[in-house]
Design a protein that fits this description.
disordered C terminus, mainly alpha, disordered N terminus, 36% helix, 2 strands, rod-shaped
Length: 294
């Protein structure tokens, strides 16, 4: 019995012999080790495949990016067109200016769109350059324009009655048949503007620059033209009935006749073409007489 116990103890203390008695386990370990030898070769082949496919991957990525950008542009254009249509519908529908009209007008102006026939009565615009904008037939009555440039703007047949345009630049603007009744145009630059057949009755044009303006057929009844400069202005058939021409410069005005001047008044500082005379305004406060009830 002692010999059997000693033999068992020796066999237990020899793991190599125990391992050799398990052939299946031995085969499993060997196969596992053979698989591990395959791993480096697999990664090497994968790296080679990636190296070969890398240019094609970059090309596909660039194509995908281009398609995405194109799709975004198409979507953006569609959204812009849709918003333009909504904005145009708002600005051309009669209604209060606070009903989204101001924001819609600003949006269309930023896009460089014209605002012809727009209904913008009461709009307030400050410090904007709107040179060359198309506002033909637009309703801008009772609006306020402060430090706005409207040089060469198209305001043909626009409604600017009771609008505050004090100090606005309207040089070379098209104001043909525009309604400027009772508008505030004091110190406004209207040089070389087209004001043919415009309605300027009871308008305030004090110290306005009207040099080289075409005023043929314009209505200036009751207008305040004190200190206005009408050098080289074409005044053919202009109505000056009850207009105040005190200190106005009309010395080089074109097509100005005595019958037109007879309907107006001025003072000793009114400059007229040679041979023309003007009656002096009465002691009655002319401004109160013609503008108090506006």
């Amino acid at each position: 019995m002692r010999c059997a116990a000693n033999r068992t103890t020796v066999e237990i203390n020899k793991p190599g012999r125990l391992f050799m008695r398990w052939p299946k386990f031995r085969d499993y370990v060997r196969k596992s080790l053979s698989y591990l030898r395959i791993v480096p070769r697999f990664f090497a082949k994968a790296h080679m495949a990636v190296s070969v496919m890398e240019p094609w991957g970059i090309l596909l990525a660039v194509i995908g990016l281009a398609v995405s950008i194109y799709s975004f542009q198409i979507d953006y254009q569609d959204r812009t067109v849709e918003r333009k249509l909504r904005a145009w519908e708002i600005v051309t529908t009669p209604g209060p200016v606070n009903g989204g009209k101001y924001e819609s007008a600003e949006f269309l102006i930023r896009l460089g769109n014209d605002l012809s026939s727009a209904e913008l009565s009461g709009i307030v615009l400050r410090t904007r350059n709107l040179s060359g904008i198309n506002l033909a037939n637009a309703n801008l009555s009772n609006g306020i324009f402060h430090s706005v440039h409207l040089d060469s703007a198209n305001l043909r047949s626009a409604n600017l009655s009771n609008t505050n345009l004090n100090g606005v630049s309207l040089s070379e603007a098209n104001l043909y048949e525009a309604n400027l009744r009772q508008a505030n145009l004091c110190e406004t630059d209207l040089s070389s503007a087209d004001l043919r057949f415009a309605s300027l009755n009871e308008a305030e044009l004090c110290a306005a620059n009207l040099s080289h303006v075409d005023l043929r057929g314009a209505d200036l009844r009751g207008a305040d033209l004190r200190d206005a400069d009408l050098t080289r202005a074409n005044l053919l058939e202009v109505s000056f009935t009850n207009a105040n021409l005190s200190r106005a410069n009309l010395r080089l005005a074109i097509s100005l006749f005595q019958r037109q001047i007879d309907a107006a008044c001025g003072d000793e500082l009114t400059e007229l073409p040679i041979g023309l005379k003007i009656q002096k305004c009465s002691d009655t406060d002319w401004y109160d007489q013609f503008f108090r009830n506006r």
